[in-house]
Amino acid sequence: MLATRYRNSSTTDNLSSLVRLLNDPNCVEIRLFATGSAGSNGYSEESDGPETNPPLVSAIAKYTIPEISDVYVLFDGLFLTAARRPRFLEVQQLMDAAETSGKASFYPAAVPFTSAAKPDAAVTTLLGLGPLTPFNAATRAKYFSLLSNIPEAQYP
């Protein structure tokens, strides 16, 4: 297994990068995650941002390179959040793309913060969490509920 961490930029660029991977035929799988609240397992204000931002979106994109290895691109830290309306709209765009792609799934509970760990350790932690839920129209609300206590349809 090879793992690398995506270098976070603006949330607009972060979103664009992950959406490109969702649409890339060479990317075979995207796993979406949502962290817990600030102060929970592994939280680092330095890499996860102020306490007002979590829960945060994190993700793993998987590429399979025949005769070489699986390559995982990790998106974590202050990547995306639904904490405020402009950020919510980005998360909504991500969910739209994930639903359309048909290759996204999510872990149905809060996950630890991984941004302070080395990429291979963080990927190993997230891959080992347990069964995933396919991301689709029927499960979208469940994923969003991990990021906000306000339902997506009622978000201001």
Give an account of the 3D structure.
The chain has helices spanning 11-23, 45-48, 85-101, 119-127, 140-147; strands spanning 2-5, 27-34, 56-65, 69-81, 104-106, 133-134. The protein is an alpha/beta fold and 156 residues long. It has a single domain (2-148), classed as TTHA1528-like (hypothetical protein tt1805, 3-Layer(aba) Sandwich), CATH 3.40.1530.10. The protein has a 6-stranded mixed β-sheet, with helices on both faces. A hairpin with a 3-residue loop joins strand 3 (56-65) and strand 4. Helix 1 (11-23) packs parallel to helix 3 (85-101). The longest helix is centred in the middle third of the chain and has 17 residues, at 85-101. It is globular and about 50 Å long.
